[in-house]
Amino acid sequence: MLERRDDPRFVAIAKPCEHALALLRQVKDRTSAPKVAEVGIGIGATSVELCRILDGDGEISFFDFAEKVDDLAADLTAHGFENFRTYGNTRRTFDSYCWALAKVLQDMRRAGEDGVFDFIYLDGCHMFHHDAPATVICKELVKPDGILLMDDYNWSIAISPTTRPSANPRITRHFTDEQIEVPHVALICELFLDHDPAFERLDIGYAETPHEHRRAFRKKPGA
């Protein structure tokens, strides 16, 4: 998988997410062995850098299609990393990383734990029907004082070169005009995070620009 970082076809996702790396460094400064989750791994560009920051401490969990996390696991093992877990889902219509996240939450509740992860990077399909439930689950999975980073905040079907109707006319069979135009992650943040008193928004450098691509939240201690 990691060899795709040098493939021109994947140039848009070949570089690691610097916000995710910076936030994990902050987390590790205060937590020596953090537990981390990356939901949606792309081609592993961010995944391998997160592992390097952990440097054998703590544990990182990856959620995505089974064949993708299996490929990533083989590459990470070849690079000498061992402190990771994978949660793969099928490509069946109603299966997704949401189900795997739900099972982790179920185990957490049965164990009486107050959160699982110190840092969650949610970079999934950025569509409401998957990432709304994923966000609701991740809000519980993140520990007090933990951080949830939402990617593709300003992404929409309409602006994507691969999903917009001009490139993929069949998309109009599945989404309304409004659903095509509206950025789904921005809506999810507004509904479930922006106004939740248990969370506070973190400044990650978008204060001076209207083109916000990611949004980060910290779960308040005692929430």
TrEMBL record:
Pfam families: Methyltransf_24
Entry EC no(s): 2.1.1.-
Enzyme type, top EC level: transferase
One example GO MF annotation: methyltransferase activity
Keywords noted in UniProt: Methyltransferase, Transferase
Example of a GO biological process term: methylation
Cited InterPro entries: SAM-dependent_MTases_sf
Protein name, entry field: Class I SAM-dependent methyltransferase
Organism, scientific name: Microbaculum marinum
